[in-house]
UniProtKB/TrEMBL annotation:
Places the protein is found: Cell membrane
Chief place of localization: membrane
Organism of derivation: Flagellimonas halotolerans
Domain of life: Bacteria
InterPro entries: MFS, MFS_trans_sf
Annotated Gene3D superfamilies: MFS general substrate transporter like domains
Transmembrane portions of the chain: 12-33, 45-65, 77-97, 109-138, 150-170, 176-196, 227-251, 263-281, 293-322, 375-399
This protein's name: MFS transporter
Membrane topology type: Multi-pass membrane protein
Pfam families per UniProt: MFS_1 (PF07690)
Position of the signal peptide: none
Length: 419
């Protein structure tokens, strides 16, 4: 397969710019918020609360958001999502205004940050399903795997640069002007998105009752062994392997590397994942996908344990880099499964379930890590999460031979025949 097949479509290139700008802004914003909140509280539990504030609305609205996405035009809906994020970024920029800490109590600033993160959870519940659905309207079915790889690679590249720049910008220009940079990238995404024309609505059941729509979506996901297995495996691994939520603690109190070291630590997993994803454009992962996914999750758990026990900065960076590399394998396989096995009229609802299983497990994982660190200590909490990830991969490999034998080549061949 042509490794650049998806890039030969102009709209897809514009889409990648929009996705890069949004992920860059969102990941940078989350890091800056983490740094500011921990600086205000010096309490690891407060880092977990950030994740909880976002995951509550994201999960509670996910299924309803999927129904709306399947009923509405995707380009304009994405414009609304990005505009909402821009408003939240502007609010965080104003909250970090120099001198505000003297005028307001720390608790007032903290609770205001939590409130804006909470609103961001509502935006995110619509953002993921809309992006997932829009990709399928831009490229032909036969190049879905290639498009999914480039889209995921763009996501990871932005996840590299966002956290890295966040760490350095906090040191160079402070939290306040770092928030201004974030706001600027969200506006850039909005401007480029207007260059993509409106798309047709593929759902033949427009006006379908909400509960019937949600029931059909859930029935499809839970009835498809490949989709359900991939989502469950990734959800549990991410839930218990959420060590990145505790990186401010490691940077400030364990490794003593400051904001710049924090940026390097935060970027290391995404660097590893980006390299994996770029490599996968030439060496596809769809053959023996089940075995590769299980091996990747197991290796991820090992990396998290090494990171948790490390007291050396360079070893911690290597462990996080490798965790990102194997996580990249997991992400590509999962996205390929979803794109290939989801019908067009259900993409919003399936993507919403995916956001509940995997996307929200990042925030739940952050909360779990924060609580575990509070109760057990930071190092013990991270090692415990890595061990649970190993257990999950091993158990799935034993109890689900069907998933272990999963191969996506047949699905790809069928889509090529359709086109």
């Amino acid at each position: 397969m042509d490794p650049y097949a998806a890039l030969r479509f102009k709209e897809f290139n514009i889409f990648l710019i929009v996705r890069f700008a949004m992920v860059f802004a969102w990941s940078m914003q989350f890091i800056v918020i983490e740094w500011q909140v921990y600086s205000l509280t010096k309490d690891p539990l407060s880092l977990g609360i950030i994740g909880l504030m976002e995951v509550i609305p994201a999960v509670s609205m996910a299924l309803f958001a999927g129904h709306i996405v399947d009923q509405k035009e995707k380009r304009n809906l994405l414009i609304t999502c990005i505009a909402g994020f821009s408003v939240i970024s502007l609010g965080l920029f104003l909250l970090s205004w120099p001198g505000l800490e003297d005028a307001w109590e720390s608790k007032t600033i903290l609770y205001s940050i939590y409130a804006l993160v909470f609103l961001g959870g509502f935006v995110r519940s619509f953002l993921g399903p809309t992006i997932f659905s829009l990709i399928a309207l831009i490229v032909p079915k036969k190049i879905y795997p290639n498009a999914a790889t480039w889209s995921s690679s763009t996501w990871q590249l932005a996840s590299v640069l966002g956290p890295a720049l966040a760490g350095f910008s906090i040191s160079w220009i402070g939290v306040h002007w770092s928030m201004c940079v974030i706001f600027g990238f969200s506006l850039m995404a909005l401007i480029f998105l207007f260059q993509i024309p409106r798309k047709p609505i593929m759902n033949p059941k427009l006006g379908e009752p909400v509960f019937q729509s949600l029931r059909d979506g859930l029935k499809f996901v839970f009835g498809n062994k490949a989709i359900f297995g991939a989502l469950t495996l990734d959800m549990i691994a991410v839930l218990f392997g959420g060590a990145v939520a505790l990186l401010p603690v490691y940077a400030q109190d364990i490794l003593h590397v400051g904001s710049q070291g924090f940026g390097i630590l935060r970027a290391a997993p995404a660097v590893g994942a980006s390299i994996t994803m770029l490599g996968s454009t030439r060496f596809p992962l769809h053959k023996n996908a089940g075995k590769k996914l299980l091996m990747a999750v197991f290796a991820f758990g090992v990396c998290i344990i090494v990171f948790g026990l490390s007291e050396l900065f360079w070893l911690s960076v290597i462990a996080l880099f490798l965790s990102g590399a194997v996580d990249g394998v997991s992400m590509i396989i999962r996205q390929t499964i979803l794109q290939l096995k989801t019908p067009d009229n259900m993409r919003g609802r399936v993507a919403s379930v995916n956001s509940m299983f995997v996307g929200s497990s990042n925030e739940l994982g952050a909360f779990e890590s924060g609580v575990a660190a509070k109760l057990l200590g930071t190092v013990t909490a991270v090692v415990f999460g890595g061990c649970m990830t190993l257990l999950t991969a091993g158990t799935t490999a034993i109890v689900s031979p069907t998933f272990r034998r999963l191969d996506l080549q047949k699905d790809i061949d069928e889509h090529e025949k359709e086109d």
